[in-house]
């Protein structure tokens, strides 16, 4: 079983990925500034407090792992100001992985990042830009840096995130002509990520994940 480093493991998709990976029998190093407070109990879990913008912290966290899941998020209150977390953290992570010889990276960005922006429907385009524009400009830079790397990467672009348990009933849209927005639970995104780490079915490709399509 691979030893996974999950960056951003204290909440959201990162926390759900840690849960799903542990349930699948993986060893998980859960990296976050608040890692000590992660309310999971498993002998295969290692809580690793650290800052994703610190080269020293990230380098230390990479020791002995086989794959990395990058699942960063920013608070809603920060969306209206400049956003640099995604690109800045990736500019730390990618060279650290290359130096450590850790090649496998699954990075969570979102529907609307990179070349999936053209697939945003006309009814969604203006509100998306007003609310998420700054964050997704930074996710664009994040994706470019990953694509330019020598890593074995997969870009995971979920639609609108919901709570609730994993259902296993979701679509993996891996062709640009099929990309569309929709709802998907964080737990289902995590299930896909853990399966992708095991199977490597989408190395070097972006995928959009949805369970239920939204109106265009």
TrEMBL record:
SUPFAM superfamilies: NAD(P)-binding Rossmann-fold domains. It comes from the Bacteria. InterPro entries: NAD(P)-bd_dom, NAD(P)-bd_dom_sf, Polyketide_Oxido-like. GO terms for molecular function: biliverdin reductase [NAD(P)H] activity; riboflavin reductase (NADPH) activity. Residues 8-195 form the NAD(P)-binding domain. Gene3D superfamilies: NAD(P)-binding Rossmann-like Domain. PANTHER family: FLAVIN REDUCTASE (NADPH) (PTHR43355). This is Epimerase. The lineage of its organism: Bacteria, Pseudomonadati, Pseudomonadota, Alphaproteobacteria, Hyphomicrobiales.
